[in-house]
Amino acid sequence: VQLVESGGGLVQAGGSLRLSCAASGSTFSIKRMGWYRQTPGNQRELVASITSGGGTTNYSDSVKGRFTISRDNAQNTMYLQMNSLKPEDTAVYYCNAVGGYLLAPIDYWGQGTQVTVSS
Questions:
Q1: How far apart are the C-alpha atoms of 64 and 119, rounded to whole Å?
Q2: Residue 52 neighbours by CB under 8 Å, 6+ apart
């Protein structure tokens, strides 16, 4: 599975961005997908996740109510709509997909896209 993110950039506080993650390869094996973010010196943290059918979503408390995760399985693409952005949302955002099997999951990662929110 290959993942390619797009949509990052520079935005003022209060603004919006939409990230996209295009999946290719053995996409049939993907069980769930998610967005993570990382700032220098910190661990990568989960922002939001979504199941393969799109029926179940989860969000970190810091983005709940502001970000929306979705996926278009026909296009093999996942999105993260980010509204009311804050300077603390500044990070490199990574697309993640979990494939493999229940007892032997495989994590796939995109290359990351920078999101910078100015105050």
A1: 20
A2: 30, 31, 32, 33, 73
DSSP E strand stretches across 52-90: 57-59, 67-72, 77-82
Look up residue 73 and give its amino acid: N
Q: Which pLDDT score, from 0 to 100, does residue 29 have?
A: 85
Which 3 state secondary structure label does DSSP give 27?
A: helix
- Evaluate if residue 54 carries a pLDDT over 90: no
CB 68 within 8 A of CB 85: no
List the alpha helices (DSSP H) in 16-70: none
Residue 115 identity (one-letter amino acid)? V
CB 63 within 8 A of CB 74: no
**Local structure of residue 14 (DSSP, 8 states):** T
Per-residue pLDDT tens over the stretch 11-45 = 999 999 999 999 999 888 888 999 999 999 999 99
- Say how far apart CA 87 and CA 89 lie, in whole Å: 5
